[in-house]
Amino acid sequence: MPVIALAPDYRGEVRDRVENFHGNQLVYFGWDRRMLFCSPFTLPLPPDMPFKTLVSDVLTPLLAAHPEGASIDWSTATWLRAGQPFVPEPEASLVANGLGHKTVLRLQTPQPAGVGGSGN
């Protein structure tokens, strides 16, 4: 989120620069229509991680905390990258899939529709 300083000559140190994350980059991740996770996760991820590894080794265990996480059919999932639909290349790296530092990645699943259909 960009911030505008009220003081005209204000200079602050930007602490969330990519070089401050030891070779990782931050990716914000959210699962649409699942309010049990009230805000996106911030994931420090290696830029050369294949997208399929992100799904299998990061997102699947992360979403297992949700009562319906284990029933995600990843083959029917759709994705938004920075608010725009995109089809990831599973074998390609995060960077090759256009996921850079502080990119917002959103997962959309047709089923399930949240706990008891509530969207949670």
Number of domains: 1
Distance between the termini: 26 Å
Q: Please give the CATH architecture.
A: Roll
Radius of gyration, in Å, reads: 16 Å
The level 1 CATH classification is Alpha Beta
CATH superfamily: Phenol hydroxylase
Low-pLDDT stretches: none
Give me the number of helical elements.
1
* Biggest beta sheet attributes: 5 strands, mixed
Mean pLDDT: 91
Reported by name, the CATH topology is: Ubiquitin-like (UB roll)
Shape: globular
Order of helices and strands: EEHEEE
Number of strands: 5
Task: List the defining traits of the structure above.
5-stranded mixed β-sheet, Phenol hydroxylase subunit P4, 1 helix, Ubiquitin-like (UB roll), single chain, alpha+beta, Phenol_hydroxylase, 120 residues
At a glance:
The chain has 120 residues and is of the alpha+beta class.
Give a verbal description of the structure.
The chain has 120 residues and is α+β, with helices and mostly antiparallel strands. It has a single domain, classed as Phenol hydroxylase (Ubiquitin-like (UB roll), Roll), CATH 3.10.20.560. It contains one helix and five strands. The protein has one helix at 51-63; strands spanning 25-31, 41-45, 78-81, 84-86, 103-108. β3 and β4 form a beta hairpin. The protein is globular. 12% of the residues are buried. The model has no long low-confidence stretch (mean pLDDT 91).
